[in-house]
Design brief:
This protein is an alpha+beta fold and about 525 residues long. The chain folds into three domains: about 230 residues, Orthogonal Bundle (GROEL, domain 1); about 100 residues, 2-Layer Sandwich (GROEL, domain 2); about 150 residues, 3-Layer(bba) Sandwich (GroEL), CATH 3.50.7.10. A hairpin with a 5-residue loop joins strand 5 and strand 6. The longest helix has 24 residues.
Amino acid sequence: MLAGQPIIILRENVERTRGFEAQRSNIMAAKAIAAAVRTTLGPRGMDKMLISSTGDVVITNDGATILHEMSVQHPGGKLVVEVAEAQDSEVGDGTTTAIVLLGSLMDETEKLLTRKIHPTIIAHGYQLGMEKALSIVDEQAIAVDYDDRETLVKVAGTAMTGKAVEAIKDKISGIVVDAVRQVATRTNSGTYVVDEGDIKIKKQVGETMHDAELIRGVVIEKKRAFEQMPTEVKDAKVALLAQPLEITKTQVKSKIKITTSEQMKAFSEQERESLRKLAETIVAAGANVVLCQKGIADAVQYYLAKHGVYAVEDVKEEDMKFAARALCGTIVNKPEELNEITLGRAEATRELPDTELTVISGCENPKAVTILLRGTSQLLVDELERAVYDGARVIQDAIEDGKVVAGGGSVETELQMRIRDYAATVGGRVQLAIEAFANAFEVIPRTLAENSGFDPIDMVVALRKAHADGEKYAGIDVYTGEVVDMYESGVIEPERVKIQAIKSATETATLLTRVDDMMVTQPRKNPMDAE
């Protein structure tokens, strides 16, 4: 107001929320989203059924997938969804943990704001708490070696427990560990680097999920080009061709005038002879399998089949490059460039019965591998894929960092107790914010207990006592309700997953806490729209 006259500085379609109402709006959004995924946490968590506007159904307990399908509109809620997406892209697992922890931090923020603690003090306390938490997690970390397959299998099993793949968890865990170790590259400093693009996951509806297998090679979603070609080739020598095996058009326009049947016959014979030479060149180079990125002429298919060559046409460029890495071969443009060096090698190439899949397997030292998943329905194989992706990413994290931590709420309990002790050493109101930060970690063991059907108060008290007695790996056995050593029980997670969850949750909570004014631009109404 100025001299009694209102001064309008915002457009009519801007909705403004200020002060505690703005903070409360963001807090409620974060808590609501955390509550939506909280029941999926842990091995005994529930699944969510999500149905899109087009009727597509997704059944999953993967936090990132749930939030992606929810289509959140609230601006503060969108930040929470970004936490899950960042967690998933950075480390591949721990999305639900990050969201539940964020919801708990926002709940503690609400209590502090009610007690008139300034948002800046809360943010500072949370920052100090996070730095302390990260140092404690690093102290809790246990070294794991690339050659320690047994521990790595436990890490993969922990990530996949509670998902659709649990019935074959032991088999899939072994497959995932072997896949990641196969493509891991040792650096000059002695550490390992894994390119997640070197592991492909292929799905096939049919058979059962027990038929999942690790293919030391490539799976191509194409059948052989010609029915008379063999369905299986042993000791495969694979030609990788980028150009079509056809008569190519000339660069300039030209016409051939044919006036007699003899000329027509001669022209056809010459064309067929050219195509036969293409096939003969490939066979002479020693190839008995052909992967062609473009088309293969019918005549070439016929001549290749006569020589017992298995050929696939119109292979995607992505699959061609992956095959080159898996088979240790080279993609060439012309059959004349094929030789012993450019040919890829594998034990066998086969067409899977009743499928559209070609499997090239048994490569001696593949730089890329494929995990083939089977299932009785599309919903099942989709959830299997999500579980295997999580498992592969956590093994990648563990191998690259060489550090793991115990699960089952053991780290969170240790963090809660030690950060509370740390808070007592800090003076002023910041101490209250650090204590609130410590209290937020209780939500993880509490939720694990609730989702498993046990009394959360009893479990949290028992956990605190065990940690007070020096049992730093003590956590909840969700199947028996007892407090046990999680490391000995094989419940292990990569340190990177835990660190990323703490960072993502804390930084987003700090960001939302400092917001005291929200200006949301509403879409303008079209005056032509009917009332």
